[in-house]
Structures are given as structure tokens and as C-alpha cells.
């Protein structure tokens, strides 16, 4: 998943267009647009401008980049970040006709609609709900991205084994713990410590 650091949530969701409202306007359905990976923001910005310039916001109310939040731990500190949940895809709420289809397909970095043959397939209501779920639901499902990997060298900076170095045997991202194999009293001893109690040893 390509990271979207620097994104404001409203830029991703288009919340000024009521992105949390799943009902949509009469005749509107949600569709998936395939893009070049990493070009999602460029596509959204281009489409939003073209839609407004053409005065057809009633036909394409929303352009949305599905996102998720996660917690990254670095040097024992937590930082909330935002990532694109589905790289290479942008969602649009639209009434598809000749004009709107051409506007979308003519956009730079757009590959096409997701569907069968040349016919775009609208998302089911349950799919829309899952992709556009409120931010507080996503926050409750935060996933921890561990800054450590098995086999990495670390130094313990807190606790009874302070200042000892070792090699990571296991990483438990959910509990934010690592199992480190250290040399203690002349023998290899595994010990479990919190992320905040170790730091990476760089060559």
C-alpha cells in the first residue's frame, strides 16, 4: 500500500461532498476506477477539477480514495498515519452516461473501470459501506506497523538487560513486543521486551 502522508482526510474522502452519506443522489451508483499505482491523488484532483469545470457535480458527486489509518512505532513513539487501502483504485459516485464515462476515462493515469468487459460493475451496498465506513470505525481497527524485523540487531535500552545487544527472534506487532536473543552469563537467552525498550543497532 502506498503511503499518503501529508493527506488531509477531507482530500481523500471529499467530505465536503458528504462522502459518509451512502444513500447518494438519485440514479447514482458507486464504481471502481483503475489507475496507475501511486497516481490516485493525481487522478482524484484531475477528476474533481474537470467535474466542477463541466458543471456536472450532480452527475459525479464524489471522487474518493479508500484509506486506512495505522499506528507506526518508531523509537518507542506512536504516530498515526494514513495509507491508501487499495493502491491503483479510486472510487467514484456517479450516474454513468456517455458524458461522465468519457470524462473519467479521458483522465490522465486512468486505466479504466472495474467491470465485465466494457461494462463497469457498480459496487454492492455492503462493499460501499465497508469502504466508506466512518473514521472512528477505522480508528478502532488500527494496525500497528512494527519498526523491527526478525533477524535485526537491537540494543536494549531499559529494564534488567539494559545496554545488552541481541538479535530479534520474534515480533509481535499487536502487543508491541519483540523477543530478543541476548548473550547473558555466557549463554544465549531469549527475553521479551516492549518496542520502547529497544532500539535498532545500525552498522
UniProtKB/TrEMBL annotation:
Single Gene Ontology BP annotation: transcription antitermination
Domain of life (superkingdom): Bacteria
Keyword Transcription among record annotations: yes
Family matches, as Pfam families: NusG
Record domain NusG-like N-terminal: where: 27-135
Keyword terms of this UniProt record: Transcription, Transcription antitermination, Transcription regulation, Transcription termination
An example Gene Ontology CC term for this record: cytosol
Annotated ranges, domain KOW: 147-174
Summary of the function given for this chain in its UniProt record: Participates in transcription elongation, termination and antitermination.
Protein family: Belongs to the NusG family.
Name of protein: Transcription termination/antitermination protein NusG
Source species of the chain: Chloroherpeton thalassium (strain ATCC 35110 / GB-78)
Name of the gene: nusG
Amino acid at each position: 500500500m502506498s503511503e499518503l502522508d501529508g493527506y488531509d482526510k477531507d482530500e481523500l474522502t471529499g467530505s465536503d461532498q458528504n462522502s459518509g452519506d451512502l444513500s447518494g443522489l438519485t440514479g447514482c451508483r458507486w464504481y471502481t476506477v483503475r489507475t496507475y499505482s501511486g497516481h490516485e491523488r493525481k487522478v482524484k484532483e484531475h477528476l474533481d477539477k474537470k467535474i466542477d469545470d463541466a458543471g456536472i457535480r450532480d452527475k459525479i458527486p464524489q471522487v474518493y480514495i479508500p484509506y486506512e489509518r495505522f499506528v507506526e512505532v518508531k523509537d518507542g513513539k506512536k504516530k498515526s498515519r494514513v495509507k491508501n487501502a487499495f493502491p491503483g483504485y479510486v472510487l467514484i459516485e456517479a450516474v454513468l452516461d456517455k458524458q461522465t464515462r468519457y470524462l473519467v476515462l479521458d483522465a490522465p493515469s486512468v486505466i479504466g473501470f472495474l467491470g465485465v468487459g466494457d461494462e463497469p460493475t457498480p459496487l454492492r451496498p455492503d462493499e460501499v459501506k465497508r469502504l466508506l465506513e466512518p473514521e472512528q470505525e477505522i480508528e478502532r481497527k488500527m494496525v500497528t506497523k512494527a519498526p523491527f524485523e526478525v533477524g535485526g540487531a537491537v540494543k536494549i535500552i531499559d529494564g534488567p538487560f539494559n545496554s545488552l545487544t541481541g538479535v530479534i527472534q520474534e515480533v509481535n506487532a499487536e502487543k508491541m513486543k519483540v523477543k530478543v536473543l541476548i548473550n547473558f552469563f555466557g549463554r544465549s537467552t531469549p527475553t521479551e521486551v516492549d518496542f520502547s525498550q529497544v532500539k535498532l543497532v545500525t552498522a
